[in-house]
Amino acid sequence: MSLYHEAASILDETRAKKCSIKSLVYPAKKGKEWKSDPKALFALSTEAAKWSEVLAEVVGRSGMLGVERTLSPTLALVLTHDLFLSKRGIALPASHGLNAAVSKHKARLSAELTKARLRRGCATLDELRIKVNNGGLVASNDPEGQRKLPRHPRWVRINTLKTSLEEQLNWKFAEWQLVSTLREVLQATSSREQIYHVDEHIPNLIAIPSGADITTSVAYQTGALILQDKASCFPAYLLNSQAGEGDVVDACAAPGNKTTHLAAILAESREDDQTGNALGGKIIACEKDVARSETLDKMVKLAGAAEVVMVKAKQDFTKLPPTARVAANVTALLLDPSCSGSGIVGRDEESGITVHLPSTTPEIATVRGKKRKRPSAAAPLKPPAAPPPAEPTTEEGLPPASADDTAEKLAARLANLAAFQLRLLEHAMAFPAARKIVYSTCSVHAEENEHVVIAALRSEVAREMGWRVLRRGEQVVGMREWGLRGLRGAVEEAVGDGREGGVEVDVEELVEACLRCDKHGDDGTMGFFVVGFVRDAGEMLASNGNGGGTTAPPRVESPEDNGGDDEEWKGFAD
Ligand SMILES: C[S@@+](CC[C@H](N)C(=O)[O-])C[C@H]1O[C@@H](n2cnc3c(N)ncnc32)[C@H](O)[C@@H]1O
């Protein structure tokens, strides 16, 4: 019994305090002890919250709350959720008062659920489930919202180390239909809808409906297809390393999505080379974490990249001396360090969930969008005292990293991360033969992005070595054409009112050089940031002449190796 009461109290509290379910179930400081298993409690509360818009309608229209006085609106929500949406049904004996109170109304509730589903244009409960999971639901009386789409397709990178786009389109996707817009993929309502869209920015990348599962296919299991968010393909593509240009360091490589993408681009450039010379160029993939090094190794092998990738397991990038023999021919570096992960779709998303409550009096069909109350035989219970539903708070409309993060805590956390990221970037800039660096994060925070870029440009090593940003006009075509650039306000704020350290930052140039992906936009990507740095051949302003002897920036330990966008390897997927 406690599971349902506890889940209901969590939903009440999340509405009242505008905090996340996670922070209530797993409080940072020792707080309330739950009787239920926290995992089950978290799962039920988040699922019921996600479904609350539909269930509030179902419960409200059924009139159940007018009759069952033992049920509060949130208790009715969680029980109705399990009655219809949990495989095992309500986890209470049929004779239990709570189970009986809801099951008694099953026929009416079921009829209302069918109507709610049809109102949302879903032929089956599975289709409705996909819509709910994609966050594509909105109030049924909101005609604009009815057309709202899920935001994220499934991105599939064709691994050209093992296959080709043409081969996969003629084989794995032979029965599928090509559509010309991403919107059509997002509109797919059924996981069985076999359509794909070929991306216009990143070569060898396609989008398929979010419910489509390719993980059981041979192509996926043999590493020919890799599930990788479009945004996560930007760094390797922007770096655009070509055979014959020297070696590349992937500084923070596990689980290896970008490493294998880099390897594929490098291998393709070899094939394109007409000279017939065996051109050199290997990828040195560093990973500090032991377990993640193993994952990296596994992924590199499965992707068919082992020939070109040298995995440096348990290698802290900051301890790889720029002047080491292995780095002598390193001309490019990809730096995708641990970050807050605030751009990851799904992470902390639940802190922005709105819990909808059923009305305690049944409602009947809407008339021109306005609801009429059906006169109820039973006297209505007193209306719920809870305040209005929680909305995502924060500047830029983003949910906080965690509901426990006060502005102060978040600022401290970001400052810590930014110091670590800057330290890595400065280290990358010290490689004497390096000509190009790509820096990326799956964070939406300017502190980890534009601000780090400006601090890096103003660093001693950047000035000594002559690093500048890779201008938009110099970028590979798909990146040049990408519309979303750096945040002007963030750049202006960090640049301040003048030169610092003798470095003049051109705001316009910097804004245009940076690329952003919007987690909540229409491009179907996660939140992401990428920028390139270059220095011209021969540029070496350092007095010591070897570029490796710059003043070492203060030591900052990796603050939290949360692994950013790719926490755990579950096959080839972000
Ligand atoms: C965002 S993830 C990298 C994701 C990877 N680039 C991909 O696309 O699959 C960051 C990784 O950097 C590793 N890392 C953190 N600090 C490091 C350091 N100083 N040297 C090397 N690796 C580090 C973390 O363990 C984590 O695996």
Write the layout of secondary structure elements.
Blueprint: H1 2-17, H2 21-25, H3 38-62, H4 64-67, H5 73-85, H6 97-103, H7 106-119, H8 125-133, H9 143-146, E1 154-158, H10 165-170, E2 177-178, H11 182-187, E3 195-198, E4 205-208, H12 218-221, E5 225-227, H13 234-239, E6 247-250, H14 257-272, E7 283-287, H15 290-302, E8 309-313, E9 330-335, E10 363-367, E11 370-373, H16 407-429, E12 436-441, H17 450-457, H18 460-465, E13 468-469, H19 477-480, H20 488-495, H21 507-513, E14 515-517, E15 528-534
Parallel strand pairs: 2-3, 6-7, 6-9, 7-8, 9-12
Antiparallel strand pairs: 1-4, 1-5, 3-4, 10-11, 12-15, 13-15, 14-15
The protein binds S-adenosylmethionine (SAM).
S-adenosylmethionine binds at residues 232, 252-258, 286-289, 292, 316-318, 336-338, 558, 561, 563-566.
Keywords:
574 residues, alpha/beta, Alpha-Beta Plaits, Rossmann fold, eight-stranded mixed beta sheet, five-stranded mixed beta sheet, 21 helices, 36% helix, disordered C terminus, binds S-adenosylmethionine
**Shape, please?**
globular
CATH topology of the largest domain: Rossmann fold
Backbone CA Rg? 27 Å
The molecules bound to the chains, other than polymers, are: S-adenosylmethionine
- Span of the ends, CA to CA: 38 Å
Structural class: alpha/beta
The CATH level-2 architecture of the largest domain is identified as 3-Layer(aba) Sandwich
* Main β-sheet description: 8 strands, mixed
- Number of DSSP helices? 21
Number of domains: 3
- Average per-residue pLDDT, rounded, comes to 82
- Poorly predicted parts: 137-147, 363-404, 541-556, 560-574
**How many beta strands in the DSSP annotation?**
15
Q: Fraction of residues in helices?
A: 25-40%
The CATH superfamily of the largest domain is known as Vaccinia Virus protein VP39
Proportion of residues in extended strands? 5-15%
Q: Please report the first level of CATH classification, the CATH class of the largest domain.
A: Alpha Beta
